[in-house]
């Protein structure tokens, strides 16, 4: 599936910003794989002195941003599995700020975050590579909103790309 095949009606407006950072001609599994190859390099490029840096009071640290990305991808994987199995049960949302507050970023080294990202992303690639075109069109319900499985996959990619941009602009 190409990004250009995802319609506005495939996801809530809130998520469209994540979709809009993905090139229209990009294939979903290829983009997931591209990020598997290049995002760990970005993580490793962050200077050690910036790891626990926050650009303003009450904002996440660099480490918390990376753990947020891992948490979110895991949540999206679960949603993807449910949608891929045509499960129509409404799925609950999650409070990213509460999760970030409970995440033990001090317990993670840079190498462990890289390893966790690679593990989680490989699972996402394996999951999405098994879905048919029909599967990717299925709309499930999460956080009281309908979203297609294909849009969810691209949102996973866009979420990483979006936060990478925020890290570059505000943290580095």
TrEMBL record:
Transmembrane region(s): none
Entry-linked InterPro entries: DinB-like (IPR024775), DinB/YfiT-like (IPR034660)
Limits of the DinB-like domain: 32-166
Highest taxon, organism lineage: Bacteria
Designated name of the protein: DinB superfamily protein
Organism: Robiginitalea myxolifaciens
């Amino acid at each position: 599936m190409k990004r250009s095949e995802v319609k506005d009606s495939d996801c809530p407006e809130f998520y469209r910003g994540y979709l809009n950072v993905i090139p229209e001609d990009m294939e979903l599994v290829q983009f997931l794989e591209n990020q598997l190859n290049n995002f760990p390099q970005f993580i490793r490029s962050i200077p050690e002195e910036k790891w626990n840096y926050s650009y303003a009071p009450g904002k996440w640290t660099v480490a918390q941003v990376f753990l947020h990305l891992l948490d979110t991808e895991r949540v999206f994987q679960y949603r993807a599995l449910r949608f891929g199995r045509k499960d129509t049960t409404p799925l609950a949302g999650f409070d990213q700020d509460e999760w970030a507050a409970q995440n033990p970023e001090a317990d993670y080294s840079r190498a462990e975050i890289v390893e966790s990202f690679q593990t989680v992303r490989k699972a996402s690639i394996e999951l999405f590579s098994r879905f048919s075109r029909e599967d990717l069109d299925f709309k499930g319900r999460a956080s009281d909103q309908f979203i297609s499985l294909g849009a969810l996959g691209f949102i996973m990619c866009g979420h990483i790309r979006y936060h990478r941009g925020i890290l570059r602009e505000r943290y580095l």
